[in-house]
Amino acid sequence: MNDTVLEMNGISKRFGGVAALSDVSIDLREGEILAIVGENGAGKSTLMKVLSGSYPAGSYTGTIRIDGAEQRFASPADSEKAGIAMIYQEISMHLDASIAENIFLGNLPNASGVINWKTVYEKARQYTDMVGLNVPVRQTLRKLSASQQQLVAIARALSRNPRFLVLDEPTSTLTESEADVLFNILFRLKERGISSIYISHKLKEVLYLADRITILRDGRKISTRQIAETSIDLTVEEMVNRKIDEMYPKRAVPIGEEVFRVENLEVVHPLTNSKLIVDGVGFSVRSGEILGLVGLVGSGRSETVNAIFGAIRRKSGELFLDGRPVRIRNPRDAIRSGLALLTEDRKKDGFVAAFNVTLNATLARFRQLARHSVIDRRREESAASEYVDKINIKLRDLRDNILQLSGGNQQKVVLSKWLMTRPRVLFLDEPTRGIDVGAKAQIYELICDLAQEGIAVVMISSELPELVGMCDRFVVLSEGKVAAERQRGEADEEALLRLATLGMG
Ligand SMILES: Nc1ncnc2c1ncn2[C@@H]1O[C@H](COP(=O)(O)OP(=O)(O)OP(=O)(O)O)[C@@H](O)[C@H]1O
Ligand SMILES: [Mg+2]
What tens digit of pLDDT does each residue of 252-302 get? Predict the structure, then answer.
C-alpha cells in the first residue's frame, strides 16, 4: 500500500446555524484516486473548499496535513503552492478573458516580468490539446459551450503541475468522449504518483475510476471502502440511507392530441456564420407524452429547444400550438404561450444570483401570484415550500440566498420555478445534471405527474438510461437534422447511441 500523503482530520465547518461538516476525516495516498460521494448538500464541496483554502484556516476546526506537516491555508493561492489544484463545481473563470489567459490566470509565464504572449499561446495550446479542446486559445470563454469551459478549467488545473488534483463534478457538463479523455489523463497522472480526489454523482464512473470511495451524509463521514469491496447498490444505500425501489417510475399515461409542433427549424451556427447548427428540424409532441431528444453534443439539441423558446435566433421555422401557428419572438412570448424551458446552464440563464430561494422559485410565475400587481408573499412562500418538500430541496430558510445552497439544490430550485408555471409544453434540457440519485428518482416521479396531468414534455439528456427509462418516443438528432424516430421499446441505449453517432439505423 502506498504512503498517505494528504490527510484531513476531524474537519467541522458551520454556516451560521447549519453544520455543513461534522468531524470528517479523509486520507489520500500517493498515486491514488479517492472518490467522495453523497447526496446534494452532504458537504462534499464544502470539504474541498476547506482543502483549497477557499474557506481559510480559522473558519473551520480540524487539521490538514501534507506529508505529515500541518497546513494552514489562508487562501487558494496557499493551497496551490502546496501542490493542490482544484477544479470547482461552479465554473469560476473569467468569461471575457481568452482561453489562454484563463489557463494561466495569476500564473502567466514571464521572463523578467515581461509576458511573452507567443509562449503563453503555445503553452496554452499544449494544455488544450491535452484535454482534447479544439478551439483557438485566443477565443474568449464566453463564446464557448459549458463543456468547453469545463475543459479549460481542467487545462488550467493541469498547467499548475499539481501533486494533488481535486475535481468537483468535472463531468457533469462533459460528453462521454470528453469524459474519457479526462479519465485517461487521471490514470496517467496516477502512474506519476499524482493523487486525485474525485467528486461525482455518476456512480458508474466513480466505480470505474476510483481506488477507494468515501461516503458523506448530512455532513458526516459514513464509510471509506476499497472499490473491490463495494458496489453501486451498497454505495447508494449508504448515501441515501434508504432503498430506492424504482429509479424510473414510468407510468402508462393516456397520450392525447398533439399539443406542440415545430417545422423546418433552422439556426445558424454561433461560431461559423455560414453553417447551420439546426438544419430543418421538425417534430411534434402530444399531451401526456414524454418525448426524448437524443443526440451527441453538437447535434443541435440544446439549440433546437432554445430557438423554439425564443432564447436564440431562428433563421426559419414554424411553431404550432394545438395545430394553430403561434408567434414566439422571445422567452416572454414563449412563457405567455404556455411553454417552459429548463436550461442546461443554470448559472447563465437559470437563476438570478442575488435573489433568495422563494423569489427564484416563483420568478416565472410572477404574473399568476401577483394579484393586482402586489406580490402576496405568503402565497408565494407556500407555493415555493410545496416544491421544497416535493423534491427535497435542502435549505434552512426560503429566504436564503440561492448561492448558499449546494450545487444540486440550486438546480432543484430552477426546476421548481418552471414546474410552477404549469406549462402546456415543458422543455427540459439536462434536468438532473448534478443531482444525486435519490433526488433524481423524485424528479422523475414529478415529471411523470406532469405528463399524467396532460403536459407535453420534451426532454434532453446526455444520460441515455434516463431517456430510455422515461420517454414514450425518441427523436434522434445528428448534425442538426432529424436522423430517426423511434417509439418506446423500439430502441435501447445502444441502438439510440448508434443512431446518434452514425445518423442511421
Ligand atoms: N456559503 C454558504 N452559506 C450557507 N450555507 C452553505 C454555504 N455553502 C454551503 N452551505 C450549506 O452547506 C451544506 C453542504 O453544502 P455543499 O455545497 O458542501 O454540498 P455538496 O455535497 O457539495 O452538494 P451537491 O452534490 O449538491 O453539490 C448545505 O446544506 C449547504 O446549503
Ligand atoms: Mg457540491
Answer: 888 999 999 999 999 998 777 778 999 999 999 999 999 999 998 778 998
Residue pair 64/144 in contact (Cβ under 8 Å)? The answer is no
| pTM of structure | 0.78
The CATH class for the domain spanning 4-240 reads alpha beta
406 CA: nearest ligand 1 atom = 17
Instruction: Characterise 345 by phi-psi region: left (phi > 0), alpha (psi -120 to 50), beta (else).
Output: beta
How is residue 3 annotated by DSSP? P
Nearest to 219 by CA among 21, 10, 14: 21
Q: Any idea which fold 253-338+424-431+455-505 has?
A: Rossmann fold (3.40.50)
146-159 vs 117-130: helix axis angle to the nearest 10? 110
Q: Are 303 and 281 in contact (CB under 8 A)?
A: no
- Nearest ligand 1 atom to the CA of 49 is 18
Domain boundaries, the chain: 4-240, 253-338+424-431+455-505, 347-422
Other beta carbons within 10 Å of 449: 15
Tell me which residues have their CB closer than 6 angstroms to ligand 1.
15, 18, 20, 38, 40-46, 89, 394, 404-409, 436
435 alpha carbon, closest ligand: 1
Give CA–CA dist 255/402, Å, rounded. Answer: 37
Residue nearest to atom 2 of ligand 1 (CA): 404
Mutate-to-test residue for ligand 1 from 86, 90, 404, highest number of ligand atoms within 8 A of CB: 404
* 253-338+424-431+455-505 matches 4-240 in CATH topology: yes
For helices 437-452 and 407-420, what crossing angle results, to 10°?
A: 10
Task: Give the model confidence (pLDDT) of 208-249 as tens digits.
Answer: 999 999 999 989 999 999 999 999 889 988 988 766 667 788
Check: CB of residue 215 under 8 Å from CB of residue 51.
no
Cell numbers placing 366: 410572477
How far apart are alpha carbons 159 and 92 in whole angstroms?
16
Could you identify the atom of ligand 1 that is nearest to the CA of residue 395? Answer: 31
